[in-house]
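We examine the record.
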Amino acid sequence: MTNAELIALIGDNEAALSALPDNLREAVLAAKKEKEDSDRRLAEAREKANIDAEREREEEDRIRREKEEEERKELLCIGTWAENIPRNRRFVLCERDWQCSAEYVTGGWRYRDPHELVPVKELCAVDIVRGYMSPYFGYYCGDGEEPHQLKSWWKERLKPVIMSETTDSFLTRIRCYWYFFKIYEREKFPFRILTYGVDERGVVNITGRSECKTWQEHRADLEKEFAKGNE
């Protein structure tokens, strides 16, 4: 017990106060009042701090919810021509013609002189609406054998987002795998969109190839098709 607390107890005890001379009684009562005032100010400060902290938490929560809603609208294309595009038309398997200093031969990659480029076909999964690759052209899913690559691209990148059963899992897939490698305006390389079928074993069979176009051109074609359908 502190001295202030002891004096306050004496100040609350009528018998103890009556036994004190006038000057000490007044001093005790003054000290008691000072402690009460101090306790009140401390309680008010704590209450204000709690209120301020709660307001800050509420503001942070509001900002977080707004950001989440903005992100949700952006990822789901809510309110735009792309909102109701079938997922398999938005998230597509693509192919581009490229040149590199390595080529796949049975058993592994063979690296050549860096100045000796050979033509290759590179695959990538692309969100045509937002222009994000997953992860990027030149990344080899599976080994270099095309059937294995096709199967891996489907299993690891396209199937999880296309076949997501809930909106939350769909959003999670986009956040995790379709939110980093952007096809920027300066990247003008053209590519083809592949159409394909997947059998019960997960084997991907290519059934068609689009014209070779830039991402902006592919997106414009998609917008033309679906925006017209929403008029």
User: Anything to note?
Assistant: The mean pLDDT is 83. The first strand starts at residue 91 and ends at 100. The CA atoms of residues 105 and 125 lie 23 Å apart. The helical segments are 3-11, 14-18, 22-76, 87-90, 146-162, 167-177, 215-229.
